[in-house]
Design goal:
With 138 residues, this protein is α+β, with helices and mostly antiparallel strands. It is built from five helices and six strands.
Length: 138
């Protein structure tokens, strides 16, 4: 992945929070998928004491605000976020996301969040979002 030193720092911060081997495998799968998928743009950023990784289907002018997806590292999982731009732009249907994934709703932002504990969880998210992002590029 061709990233700046600052971006690598934030990616390492996300990775460094993960203690579970299964969650680490999920993280590595997501990062490998991002690296190998043309047109997926990774924007690691700090949000307070945590770093997060945000994904977009095209280079965006507002690296955080326009990204439809993101995730944070936690001790035994990744916290995957279906962000506002995902729904506001019609990229995803909120009902479809809630049907496919066990989600919590962030009351302040309306974002849907799901925990990825395993490689299978990461693969399920990739299988869901990959065709959406491919359609967005086209």
């Amino acid at each position: 992945m061709n990233t700046s030193e600052q971006d690598r720092y934030h990616i390492e911060r996300v990775q460094g929070r993960i203690e579970s081997e299964d969650a680490l495998a999920a993280f590595e799968r997501l990062m490998a998928w991002c690296d190998s998928t043309r047109g997926v743009f990774v924007y690691p950023l700090s949000r307070g004491p945590l770093s997060a990784i945000y994904l977009a289907a095209r280079p965006v002018s507002r690296k955080y605000a326009d990204c439809p997806f993101g995730f944070l590292g936690a001790r035994d999982h990744l916290r995957w976020i279906f962000r506002g731009p995902c729904f506001d732009t019609g990229l995803c249907d909120q009902t479809d996301v809630e049907r496919r994934f066990e989600c919590d709703v962030n009351d302040s932002s309306g974002e849907l969040m799901t925990n990825l504990h395993t490689l299978a969880n990461a693969n399920a998210v990739i299988a869901f979002i990959a065709p959406l992002l491919a359609r967005r590029k086209g």
